[in-house]
């Protein structure tokens, strides 16, 4: 539903989502293979806010991952709304500076400011927490007065809007065809209390839910837009946070897929103990889920207790991964180096895990302490929070910092050596892809999909299969997939590996920090100042 307040003024709201720097997690190096793709995933939060605004107010939405907001758009607006994550902080401040230069009042909401409001003293209004009573107070203020306040105003949500009352995100405000994948939310919150995670503090431990009918209506809105992404990611903090609700929802999702001839594939994130839920896994298979992101964090089971993640050991780790693969789910994994329990053997244990698990995509990061987490609180008590931009983490590790970074470099070099990653993809051909359901051809034979497939196929054959220095292991893996009739796997492995290999090589050259999610400050500055023809070289085959 929209905001129910009666407003007396007509306002124009410009919602601007900040750009990400090229990163591991957003597959930015692979966009040129797709033809027209400019960004990773539509931002749910800001699209939700846009949809919630009073009907009399006009909203425009700009994702600066697709294009930069223009001076004319800032001039059009009465107020500028911004949202983002910690890693987007420099870009968030930049949008605020441009809006103020245009004389506009600015509002910042979302996860970063909700966790660290002190980082954003330059914004006029801070919206802390989720959509709710603070959002209504903001509407009341802007309806009454657009003057910039003399001092910053903080509005914090006490009474959250129930997910069942959420409006559908304003998907119509963005060109979905420019995104690699779509986004959808069914639940919010996670019952676990992992030491390094801020989700329980920000969104609660009792998962809150949308109705299956809401979810299906949002899917209808996504597929109604020409050129929509073929994959939709459930952005739920933990897809099985409420197992009963997930089990009850999935038959609706299966029925929606059948009714629409399976136009979409799905992905999600969940805890590894979902391997104990065969009924849910079978329903996910029937609904055409392809990938699940699992925060494995460390293969050292004794270390899991130290980060309050013992639930990862509910099923032996390799057995759990094999179970997920048996339902056609390719596992991607989060890994953390720099835990207090790490030893000189941790690097070897991780490399052994990479090879034995055969998980193709692993986000291997150094431990970072986020505000509003038990880790932050503990390290603050122990005087182990550091704020040196020259370092790769804000954590004072138990082991020497340079040793931990060196372990990270060797681990990513091993994981994303071309021969290694394509060998892991070959393993997925054997144990995962063949376990997926066969969906109707009718749902896939759209003009958009055919065009997208032709462009992607041509670019993979040329850029990866002909001109790259990793063409030999690619063709070995592609041949293995084709002999099994897994044509789609060839596209997937070429697309994913191309990005991972290129990004890793940049990281090993020192262009990215060890969080794997943002370029170093000096690299950002070089990118900002380099001539266009030098910047274009980043997208040429290597």
Automatic annotation (TrEMBL):
Residue ranges that the Swiss-Prot or TrEMBL entry lists as coiled coil: none
Molecular function GO labels: 4 iron, 4 sulfur cluster binding; catalytic activity; metal ion binding
InterPro entries per the UniProt record, alphabetical: BchE-like (IPR051198), DUF4070 (IPR025274), Elp3/MiaA/NifB-like_rSAM (IPR006638), HpnP-like (IPR034530), Methyltransferase_Class_B (IPR034466), rSAM (IPR007197), rSAM_horseshoe (IPR023404), rSAM_sf (IPR058240)
Keyword annotations of the record: Iron, Iron-sulfur, Metal-binding, S-adenosyl-L-methionine
Cofactor(s) this protein cannot do without: [4Fe-4S] cluster
Pfam families found in the cross-reference section: DUF4070, Radical_SAM
Name under which the protein is recorded: B12-binding domain-containing radical SAM protein
Organism: Methylobacterium durans
